[in-house]
Amino acid sequence: MRTSGNTILITGGATGIGFALAERLDKMGNTVIICGRRQNKLDEAKRKVPGLHPIRCDISNRFERVHLFKRISLSYRSLNILINNAGIQRAISFRNGDRELDNAEDEIETNLKAQIHLSALFIPLLAGQSESAMINVSSGLGFVPLARFPVYCATKAAIHSFTMSLRHQLKGTSIKVFELIPPIVHDTELKGKPIEKADWTLSSAEVAEAAVRGLENDQYEIPVGPTKRWLASSKADLDRAFLEINQ
Ligand SMILES: NC(=O)c1ccc[n+]([C@@H]2O[C@H](COP(=O)([O-])OP(=O)(O)OC[C@H]3O[C@@H](n4cnc5c(N)ncnc54)[C@H](OP(=O)(O)O)[C@@H]3O)[C@@H](O)[C@H]2O)c1
After folding, report:
1. For the CA of 58, the nearest atom of ligand 1
2. How far apart are CA 40 and CA 56, in angstroms?
3. How far away, in angstroms, is 36 Cα from ligand 1 center?
4. Model confidence pTM above 0.90
5. Measured in angstroms, how far is the CA atom of residue 38 from the centroid of ligand 1?
6. What is the CA(172)–ligand 1 centre distance, in A?
């Protein structure tokens, strides 16, 4: 897949991994549209990278998703890459029965239903371009769940499965379907604020760099850093990793 001269939409592109991708892809000569809920974060991203095209949109709202698609298909008809990156993560205890279930529903809507719906909306537009791509951002935690975030991990496992099916269904079209599988990233807002840097964490810029390399090499599954080991693991190794990260 070429990595310049594209028109790209990155959901959740104002912060974290999405912003690192936006900054990198803008620098490489792409037109980059970003969306998110918070106008101040979109403005901040635009201040840092003036070439970006911000659009305020809450992708957890079905009508806003349709509106986003209509707006883009009118104003950016050359759109040829969709990066389904926006996501949220909630610690949810099921020991409390359904008391925290509203959080779970938000996560399912944002991390899974929105990605599926946006994929469906944009596929005809992408299929009309000579070369196009969709990049779904899952997580290493979709392969080895961290039990504090049970629904988050389940949505990421579902994104892995959905992406495999989509890649198979879209064979023979112009759309290449990628999955970016980041490890724990220390400088994003996923956990509210950046977390401490450790041997097993990476920066969002490192993840963006791996994504660009994967895109240009048509590497359809892009595990980054420590998640490479998990993808090559046996079931027994994955079970051991589950015990290790949940002790
Ligand atoms: N950080 C990690 O350790 C890690 C590891 C593996 C995978 N990931 C995945 O990487 C992706 C990016 O996360 P990140 O770590 O970069 O965290 P982040 O900095 O919090 O980025 C998430 C972005 O998504 C946007 N967003 C959330 N809900 C949205 C909604 N309903 N509508 C529109 N935009 C929305 C947020 O902006 P607003 O709040 O302004 O809407 C934010 O800009 C996520 O899918 C995450 O699951 C992260």
Report:
1. 32
2. 10
3. 9
4. yes
5. 12
6. 31
Instruction: State both tokens at 195.
Output: 């977390």
Report d(CA 184, CA 140) in Å as an integer. 8
Q: What are phi and psi of 143, to 5 degrees?
A: -100, -40
- In ligand 1, the atom with minimum distance to the C-alpha of 141 is 6
Contact residues of ligand 1, CB 6 A cut-off:
11-12, 14-18, 35-38, 41, 57-60, 85-88, 110, 137, 139, 182, 184-185, 188-190, 204
What CATH topology corresponds to 7-245?
Answer: Rossmann fold (3.40.50)
Residues counted in the chain? 247
Question: Choosing from 152, 162, 178, 230, which is the catalytic residue?
Answer: 152
Catalytic (active site) residue 152? yes
How far, in Å, is the centroid of ligand 1 from the Cα of 247? 26
- At residue 157, φ and ψ (nearest 5 deg) are -65, -40
Each residue's pLDDT, cut to its tens digit, for the chain (247 residues) gives 999 999 999 999 999 999 999 999 999 999 999 999 999 999 999 999 999 999 999 999 999 999 999 999 999 999 999 999 999 999 999 998 998 888 899 999 999 999 999 999 999 999 999 999 999 999 999 999 999 999 999 999 999 999 999 999 999 999 999 999 999 999 999 988 888 888 888 999 999 999 999 999 999 999 999 999 999 999 999 999 999 999 9
Residues 170, 173: Cα–Cα separation, whole Å:
6
